[in-house]
Automatic annotation (TrEMBL):
Protein name, UniProt field: Serine/threonine-protein kinase bsk2
UniProt keyword Plastid present: no
Source species of the chain: Stylosanthes scabra
InterPro entries on file: BSK, Kinase-like_dom_sf, Prot_kinase_dom, Ser-Thr/Tyr_kinase_cat_dom, TPR-like_helical_dom_sf, TPR_BSK1_C
Pfam family, one: TPR_BSK1_C
Encoding gene per record: BSK2_1
Region (Disordered): 1-40
Keyword flag Phosphoprotein: no
Top-level EC class: transferase
Length: 498
């Protein structure tokens, strides 16, 4: 098994000199299993985020968005967040005590951000402002290996999936080693997560160098490599030892101290080690091979442990159901196509796919025609300077809206809202969209609701609310608004046919 490289291996840290980018048309190298390689072309480029961006992404670090946290003296908390493109991310928040040197933190994060692979939970950004130290990674929606092994609800993790975890983690470690990231801190069942397809991935957070809090291992001392207990330092062979503890977890479905497990293995009591829920799912020879591999990894002397290539060679033949998708093995429901309502209009379709350019074009073409008689209302009033001011303000607002000068459109439409005796749904709708284009989703939602007050069954008002709610990360509510807009369109269409 050779080192695997991906398309994004050219990503650079802030200190790296620019280099020529690889040919994007070249295919990813295969890994010899299933024909797939290490490519991660859909992962966004690593970037530095501002603290204000990450506050917005996590809804001001809302406690409801916490997905994991530790209670140590230098605590770190992981939040679920949502970027503007609707991509979910995991945001890990450290204390300044963990990384006093902001520059060191940024350089280290940028280095880890270059290590990309489909078996990793890839790092896509970082932030160091004031006392804040934050990492941003891909979000994994299907929990940790710890949850599926030790705290399962519906079914225990099947044997074939456990073997796949061992293989995928070995692949991830092999790639990291090839990228000169031979040290992985505190490899355990909490560091392995499952993506939207149910595939296991290794968290990139463990690739960060040891922080100043002095903790390379947060797990119980019984599971810590012997050399770390002796010297306080870890070496590449320490990672192999930790991999052995993960194999014990996979075999037993419990967190068994390595010393106890080794006693069972030496006493030929392998069946005592195996998870009873796996009965009938594996061949005895396969179980024996995995037990022997765990035993080799857990050797007291670091030099007696195998290297990562040996791990890959040992676990590859154990893959017996490569053609079966992970989510099928795990009993997970995967829905890759979002359920959208039956939408009748181009505006509804554009709103559903968050195509703001198309929404703007449609609002321009529609104009004020949905407000019956509103456009002509002023022509029947007595011609006064006040009326002329209203018409001029409306004109300037519409010109700014047409020209995508949304800041001025907001200013003119705001004046118009105050000047008009009868509120205009279209003006509220156009100002709502202008707020959206200025990243003011809450104000956009308020105006879209005002447009609905003006015309209670106006689909446009519901679609604009859906856009604003989606920007605010309220996907369920946004979907409801899309459904309501579609329902009103269907009602209108039926009444016209009648």
């Amino acid at each position: 098994m050779g080192c695997l490289h991906s398309k994004t291996a050219h990503l650079q840290s802030p200190e790296d000199p620019p280099t020529d980018l690889p040919d994007p048309n070249k295919p990813d190298p295969g890994d010899g299993v299933g024909g797939d390689g290490g490519g991660v072309s859909e992962v966004p480029a690593f970037k530095e985020y501002s603290l204000s961006e990450l506050r917005r992404v996590t809804n001001e670090f809302n406690a409801k968005n916490i997905v994991s946290e530790s209670g140590e003296k230098a605590p770190n908390v992981v939040y679920k967040g949502k970027l503007e493109n609707n991509r979910f991310v995991a945001v890990k928040r450290f204390s300044k005590l963990s990384w006093p040197d902001a520059q060191q933190f940024m350089v280290e994060a940028a280095g880890v951000g270059k290590v990309r692979h489909k078996r990793l939970v890839n790092l896509i950004g970082c932030c160091a402002e004031g006392d804040e130290r934050l990492l941003v990674a891909e979000f994994m929606p299907n929990d940790t290996l710890s949850k599926h092994l030790f705290h399962w609800d519906k079914q225990p993790l099947p044997w074939e999936m456990r073997v796949r975890v061992a293989y995928h983690v070995a692949q991830a470690l092999d790639h990291c080693s090839c990228e000169n990231r031979k040290i992985y801190h505190d490899l355990n069942a909490y560091r392995i997560l499952f993506d939207e397809d149910g595939d296991p991935r290794l968290s990139s957070f463990g690739l960060m160098k040891n922080s100043r809090d002095g903790k390379s291992y947060s797990t119980n001392l019984a599971y810590t490599p012997p050399e770390f207990l002796r010297t306080g330092r870890i070496i590449p062979e320490s990672v192999i030892y930790s991999y052995g503890t993960v194999l014990l977890d996979l075999l037993s479905g419990k967190h068994i101290p390595p010393s106890h497990a080794l006693d069972l293995i030496r006493g030929k009591n392998v069946l005592m080690l195996m998870d009873s829920s796996l009965e009938g799912q594996y061949a005895n020879d396969d179980a024996t091979k995995l037990v022997e591999l765990a035993s080799k990894c857990l050797q007291f002397e670091a030099r007696e442990r195998p290297d990562i290539n040996f791990l890959l060679t040992a676990v590859t033949p154990l893959q017996k159901q490569k053609e079966v998708a992970s989510h099928v093995l795990m009993g997970l429901t995967v829905n890759n196509t979002p359920v959208l309502p039956t939408i009748l209009s181009p505006l509804g379709k554009a709103s559903a796919r968050m195509d703001l350019t198309a929404v703007h074009d449609i609002l321009l073409k529609t104009g004020y025609k949905d407000e019956e008689g509103a456009e002509n209302e002023l022509s029947f009033q007595e011609w006064t300077q006040q009326v002329q001011d209203i018409l001029n303000t409306k004109k300037f607002g519409d010109i700014a809206f047409r020209d995508k000068d949304f800041k001025n459109a907001i200013e003119y439409y705001s004046k118009l809202v105050v000047m008009m005796s009868v509120p205009s749904a279209t003006v509220f709708a156009r100002r709502s969209f202008s707020y959206l284009m200025n990243d003011q989703a809450e104000l956009a939602l308020r105006d879209a609701m005002q447009a609905q007050v003006c015309i209670s069954d106006w689909p446009t008002a519901f679609y604009l609310q859906a856009l604003a709610l989606s920007k605010l990360g309220m996907d369920t509510d946004a979907q409801d608004m899309l459904n309501d807009g579609a329902a009103f369109e269907a009602k209108r269409s039926n009444s016209w046919r009648g």
